[in-house]
Amino acid sequence: MAARWAVLGLLAACMTSAAKKSVLNMCMDAKHHKTEPGPEGALHDQCVLWKDNACCTANTSMEAHQDQSYLYNFNWNHCGVMPDKCKQHFIQDTCLYECSPNLGPWIDQADTSWRRERILNVPLCKEDCELWWEDCKDAITCKENWHKGWNWTSGTNRCPRGSICQPFKYVFPRPADLCEKIWSNSYKYTTEHRGGGRCIQMWFDPANGNPNVAVAKYYAQNGRDASPAPRAVLLLLPAALLSLL
Known about the structure:
Strand order of the largest sheet: 1-2
Number of strands: 6
Number of helices: 8
Family: Belongs to the folate receptor family.
Number of domains: 1
Helix content: 25-40%
Mean pLDDT: 82
Protein name: Juno
Pfam families: Folate_rec
GO molecular function, one term: signaling receptor activity
Structural class: mainly alpha
Keywords: Disulfide bond, Signal
Largest sheet: 2 strands, antiparallel
Low-confidence stretches: 5-21, 226-245
Distance between the termini: 10 Å
Radius of gyration: 20 Å
Strand content: 5-15%
């Protein structure tokens, strides 16, 4: 019996190690993502940061830059035209979500008709979140959570009845409110800085490499507070253990 439990412990350690490695370079199971990351030399404009290793296709990257694309039929201009300086952050947010292979440690199950997985509590760098808020504070919106509650009867998102269009700075009084609430806690505001290896960057210079590779590695090795086990652990470990019991 002691030998069996020793084998189980060793197997658990091996499976956990394999799972940690797998989450360092993976694509989530969602609407437009590739099944595996790889080079995409023709990524468009702001998405080009991920051309060497991407979860998005060139066509997806092109659509990410449209005001209302086929990706999700989402209209940025639901309360009037969104200023370009604000829109660039939402484009970059879309590029990160669609293209990055470094979000594995924060992939969670999603109970929706259009995706099986989502990201949850990705630690966003302080500068990325605060600049996003600063450039969007005077843009106009009618909702705090953009994931749900829209009127979709026209085929695109419209403000629900009774809502009021008002500046972001009133809907999201602080940078943390914007980054955490707008996409149902997909991101988490942090006080960590770019280049410190502890937060995900939306913006970086690809000539210097992708800094999010090291960030994903750090969190895969050290875990995160109140996080579910990585997907690979959930899938592999129970079956392996049960086979030895």
